[in-house]
UniProtKB/TrEMBL annotation:
Its EC number is 2.7.1.11. Keywords: ATP-binding, Cytoplasm, Glycolysis, Kinase, Magnesium, Metal-binding, Nucleotide-binding, Transferase. Catalyzes the phosphorylation of D-fructose 6-phosphate to fructose 1,6-bisphosphate by ATP, the first committing step of glycolysis. Residues 81-387 form the Phosphofructokinase domain. The keyword Isomerase does not apply. It comes from Zobellia barbeyronii. The gene is pfkA. This is ATP-dependent 6-phosphofructokinase.
């Protein structure tokens, strides 16, 4: 940022709370200077020391605690904010949008807040998606609905054109709500802004139902996903017990990480087998899954199987064609259907009667409204995102880490995906709950 003007929030008169908040009490006396902060996090802290810092739960000195700052970089009277949501849907996006608008409007008095429609596409004028004016009245009830009132999209857009659009529309803050693709995009926009020497802040609010964003404790919407999946598993169990050798297969989302499938299995402990992308398993052979399933049916006469969409892709063979979406993400083949067919063929060959039901509730789960805990979480994320933005920070994400809300450089969380540790105690809890063999 070129200018070093610091606005003191109490002198802005922007606070509409009836009793003014004593910011120095809530923040301590630390005053952040935009340029120094930016350089310190992105240049001076190596990934290695950053990671050590994260592992050090007692005093993570290099992690910057989120929250209001005593001095602000942006003058709220002249500030324009924009919000964009990209990638797949996820419970809680509307809560985040609502939280951002409310915090910007009521806490800081930012009156010009623009909603960008249909993801990054909406920042390219040729696409013809108009901005929406976001005011408290417009967003006050949107937490009741799943999805995103702004719409979303996948697919590459010109970073230069997006920055041109930010400049043309006098946007000072861009809040991006999305997964690792969106965050990489946000960082690229931030780089272009830096190259041009502009005073625009780019903020990321990590969104993915898969919970695969690295470092942070959890992403919003994840908890709702297994909350919504749990009664579906209960019903799948009813289907399985309703037939002799009844088998229910439920496919849940999880492109690269199986957190939804694994967490659902623990939350609704009627699941007998879980398959996640992180695991290797065989269908055939003495120690393979089909033998284990036969054993289970002979003992209990029913079985419930939960499979993450990215699991078992090796079973399709190396020659099988892979498809990608508009953003280049792999679209996995239908593992639920493959399991159904292979199980049926196996038991036919064994001359063993069975009834198989295959249930795929993926999109129903993803488009649900946030549960209470996620609603609370989304609100907190939005609140902290606004404070970091108004203090002049850029190219950062807000997230909860070791139970504290912190600001992290975008680049640190998109380095790799978070995955289930197959040697870790979380996975052992899954094995304990399902009773499935350690290896198959
Ligand atoms: N390196 C990048 N530079 C610029 N834009 C990017 C980059 N990577 C991804 N994007 C853009 O970010 C947007 C969202 O990406 P993507 O479709 O992969 O979803 P996502 O944010 O990863 O969410 P989900 O977890 O639902 O997949 C797309 O418009 C995509 O083109
Ligand atoms: O079909 P869509 O909307 O492209 O999204 C599917 C993908 O979205 C995700 O939920 C990530 O947001 C993945 O688990 C899944 O592969």
């Amino acid at each position: 940022m070129s200018s070093e003007t610091n606005f003191n929030i109490s002198s802005l008169g922007a606070n509409t709370f009836s009793s003014p908040i004593n910011l120095s009490k809530t923040t301590g006396d630390k005053i952040f200077n935009f340029v120094e902060e930016h350089d310190r996090i992105l240049a001076d802290v190596s990934l290695e020391s950053f990671n050590t810092c994260i592992e050090n739960k007692t005093s993570p000195a290099c992690l910057e605690k989120a929250g209001p700052r005593e001095k602000l970089f942006f003058d709220s009277k002249k500030t324009t904010a924009a919000i964009v949501s990209c990638g797949g849907l996820c419970p809680g996006i509307n809560n985040v949008i609502r939280g951002l608008v409310m915090a910007l409007h009521y806490f800081y008095g930012v009156k010009r807040i623009l909603g960008v429609q249909y993801g990054y596409e909406g920042l390219i004028p040729e696409n013809g998606h108009e901005f929406i004016d976001l005011v408290p009245d417009k967003v006050k009830d949107i937490h009741e609905f799943g999805g995103t009132i702004l719409g979303s999209s996948r697919g590459a857009q010109s970073v230069e054109k997006m920055v041109d659009s930010l400049v043309k529309n006098k946007i000072d803050l861009l809040f991006t709500i999305g997964g690792d693709g969106t965050l990489k995009g946000a960082n690229a926009i931030g780089d272009e802004i830096e190259k041009r020497g502009l005073d625009i802040s780019i903020i990321g609010i990590p969104k993915t139902i898969d919970n695969d964003i690295d470092l942070i404790d959890k992403s919003f919407g994840f908890e709702t996903s297994f909350d919504v999946a749990s009664p579906i598993i209960r019903d799948a169990h009813n289907e399985a017990t309703g037939a002799f050798n009844g088998i229910s297969i439920v496919k849940l989302m999880g492109r690269d990480s199986g957190f939804i499938a694994a967490s659902t299995a623990i939350a609704m402990p009627v699941v007998n087998f879980v398959f996640v992308p992180e695991m290797d398993f065989q269908l055939e052979g003495e120690n393979g899954f089909l033998e284990a399933l036969k054993k289970r049916l002979n003992q209990k006469r029913h079985a419930v199987i939960v499979v993450a969409e990215g699991a078992g892709q090796h079973l399709f063979g190396e020659d099988s064609k892979t498809y990608t979406d508009a953003s280049g993400n792999i679209i996995h083949q239908d593992i639920g259907l493959l399991l159904k067919h292979r199980i049926k063929a196996y038991f036919d060959a064994e001359d063993m009667k069975c009834t198989i039901k295959y249930i795929d509730p993926s999109y129903i789960i993803r488009s649900a409204p946030a549960n209470a805990n996620d609603s609370l979480f989304c609100n907190r994320l939005a609140y902290h995102a606004v404070h970091g933005a108004m203090a002049g920070k850029t190219k950062f994400v807000v997230g909860r880490l070791n139970n504290k809300f912190v600001y992290l450089p975008i680049l640190k969380v998109v380095n790799k995906r978070k995955k289930i540790n197959m040697e870790g105690e979380f996975w052992f809890s899954v094995l304990q709950s399902t009773g499935q063999p350690f290896t198959m």
